[in-house]
Amino acid sequence: MSLPQQTVALLQAARDLVRGMPADAVLLITEAPLDWDEVAEKLFGCKLFVAAENPAYVKHLREKENWTVIDLDPDPLPTQERMSNALLKAVTAEQLKPGAHVVVLYNGIASMDDAPEPIDSLSVIHLGEHLEKMTSQDLRKLGTSVPQDVLKYVVELATEIGREGREGHPTGAIIVVGDSRKVHTMSKFRNFNPFRGYTKKERDIRRRDVREQIKEIAKLDGAIVIDRDGIAEAACVYLDVPTDGIDLPKGFGSRHLSAAAVSKKTKAIAFCVSQSSGTTRVFQDGVEKLRIEPLDRPHVWQPLKLETQDDAE
């Protein structure tokens, strides 16, 4: 199975960019099986990350030296969102550093479901322009009151809320994680609890469908409360927390003040998503411990047009 000429040209262009910029790695996202020996030949010397819509396409690649397989959620997602998730996972696992340049190869043009193009697009992404991602080391700064795997999913959730908004409109949110019993004593429901009546499995934020539901709920007023095990317990919650002793820089509103206050009065960790910028600030013990910028803004993604013979003339 040889690669289409277009795919070969893009692979060669990616290799030249890695050498010429230089770039740190190539991320290849495929929706179809590829001739991986030919891919290896064309990208020789490049650090390669591979992600596929169907994990069977890349299962045998895990043992290849200098190749890293990234597991994507099985849910059908837009290409740009899958790209963002793959890069976020690589940064969170400390496989890529914030500030890295990554050449991304993917199928960016709609095609028939039964005959997708292996690769038809190339982009160059600089992870430092609008990115301050949490790494495992950053998460360890928050201690052990909440397991790291839960924190990682909350990071993903908060980042997506900040990046996407809902229905094209920016959305702010507060997500409070851990020490949920004490948090409940300092909160009141604005109207109803959207999670009431659902099983723990149906409220587990490790599940993609649950996180998607929470992103919808984030449009409503009030905070979202998640216990230390990653089970969403409440939403549409008003945090009635004293703000004495909270010192935030000028320009922060009531949402940030409430997030800082609840983290000071409890052992919870509070994630506050800014409606205006999409930035997520992480509060613990009443102070900002980490800041997470949205992974991608429209001008971060830089599609490259390959020079054709007509262009050269």
Summary, kept brief:
This protein has 313 residues and is of the alpha/beta class. The protein contains nine helices and 13 strands. A seven-stranded mixed β-sheet has the order 7-9-8-6-10-11-12, with helices on both faces. A six-stranded mixed β-sheet has the order 3-2-1-4-5-13, sandwiched between helices.
Our Rg estimate from Cα atoms comes to 21 Å
- First and last CA, distance: 33 Å
Sequence stretches where pLDDT stays below 50 over 5 or more residues: 129-134, 296-313
How would you sum up the major sheet?
7 strands, mixed
Quote the average pLDDT: 81
Helical segment tally?
9
Helix amount, in percent? Answer: 25-40%
Number of strands: 13
β-strand percent reads 15-25%
> What name is given to the CATH topology of the largest domain?
YojJ-like (1
